[in-house]
Write a structure and sequence with these properties.
By secondary structure, this protein is of the alpha/beta class. The chain contains 13 helices and 14 strands. The protein has 2 domains: 244 residues, Rossmann fold, CATH 3.40.50.620; 76 residues, Uridine Diphospho-n-acetylenolpyruvylglucosamine Reductase, domain 3. The longest helix is centred in the C-terminal third of the chain and has 26 residues.
């Protein structure tokens, strides 16, 4: 018999745990404090899919904001329905609404169409769903006046991300993994569980007898991340390194330090290479950039894209390489980069301009 996608541990009472046993609570609170993830009075939208990770995050934040001395603003639940699993997706949305109601929190929902974006942009289903999910959560945050969105990525997600990027051939920035906090088109994306393992998440929901949903698509090894999670990492743990996830997370921290150092050098150098700067336009000294190593030049381009777009999440290594090739191209050559950015080689300069772009096709969030 197929188990129900909603799971509630049996025989457990939702009692307040002994403080000495608050393992998830300790790791999450330490990360919040160390990185200033949730400043006082901040309004926070919590992205909740209904799975154990997001339910644990929601429960923790709801309790965290009630602790003596913790002054946080409103907590709002945000759920994005991708519509990829039919009735199961609809049941997920209803489950999240009930979870928010149980905690006395406002809930916003949005429906997106990953398949449409996948066809239009030739992206993977996972990439399309992720982009639309973040855009929907950002719109929810704007609607309620929140300056940050909390998502439930764990240390295991971090390890999988680093290994995926290593296989794809990522550079320092990619191998740094996910950041505890990053700015995403004007909104801060925070990850309070990024140093918490999936084992601690399950221990937390079991201890508190919290119901959660199971996404059946996570059990199919066809997606690349699922293949790593279900096939590759278990074999590495068994045959080579039982602590492979921790090793990947530690490696990401080292790459992150190196990436931050090089990015800092690029930001220090960049002002001397800018010939002119106007809203939506930056002119670079092409000959001057060639005096620096190629590795550093690519970081300079990332700084420029960050200034023009507010974020570099949508730019790949191939886009940076296209910009870099223009430094030695003839006058008049150009390259189109995502989000309406065009670069053109002119006499002595490389000019980057940002055009207006059409908004993503995401339905307006609704109150429930």
């Amino acid at each position: 018999m197929t188990p129900s996608p909603t799971r509630r541990p049996r025989g457990l009472k939702a009692t307040r745990p002994n403080p000495r046993d608050e393992r998830l609570e300790r790791t999450a609170e330490r990360l919040i404090i160390d990185h200033g993830l949730i400043p006082p009075e901040s309004v926070v939208v919590v992205g909740v899919s209904g799975g154990p990770d997001s339910i644990a995050l929601l429960e923790f934040l709801a309790e965290y904001r009630e602790r003596p001395g913790i002054r946080t603003g409103e907590l709002v639940v945000g759920h994005v329905n991708h519509g990829l699993r039919g009735a199961e997706s609809e049941e997920d949305a209803a489950f999240v609404e009930r979870a928010a109601e149980r905690l006395g929190l406002r809930c916003l929902t949005a429906r997106v169409e990953p398949r449409l974006r996948q066809r239009e942009r030739r992206e993977s289903k996972e990439a399309a769903a992720r982009a639309l999910r973040y855009e929907a959560l950002r719109k929810m945050a704007t609607e309620v006046g929140a300056d940050r969105v909390a998502v439930a990525h764990t240390a295991d997600d971090q390890a999988e991300t680093v290994l995926l990027r290593l296989i794809r051939g990522a550079g320092l920035a990619g191998l740094s993994g996910m950041l505890p906090v990053r700015k995403l088109h004007g909104i801060y994306l925070v990850r309070p569980l990024l140093t918490t393992t999936r084992g601690l998440v399950l221990e937390y929901v079991n201890r508190r007898a919290l119901a959660y949903r199971l996404d059946s698509s996570n059990l199919q090894p066809d997606a690349r991340r699922n293949f790593l999670r279900l096939e590759i990492l278990p074999r590495i743990r068994e045959a080579m390194n039982p602590s492979i996830s921790q090793s990947l997370v530690r490696g990401a921290a080292i790459f992150r330090e190196a990436d931050a150092y090089v990015a800092g050098e690029a930001r220090r150098i960049l002002p001397a290479l800018i010939r002119a700067r106007d809203p939506g336009k930056i002119e670079l000294d092409a000959a001057g950039m060639l005096h620096y190593p190629e590795f550093l030049r690519k970081y300079l381009f990332r700084c420029v894209l960050q200034e023009l777009n507010g974020d570099t999440l949508d730019f790949s290594t191939a886009h940076i390489d296209a910009l870099h090739s223009l430094l030695t191209s003839h006058t008049g050559r150009s390259a189109d980069i995502p989000l309406g950015i065009r670069a053109r080689r002119e006499r002595g300069t490389l000019v980057l301009r940002k055009r207006e772009t059409e908004p993503e096709r995401v339905e307006t969030p609704s109150n429930t």
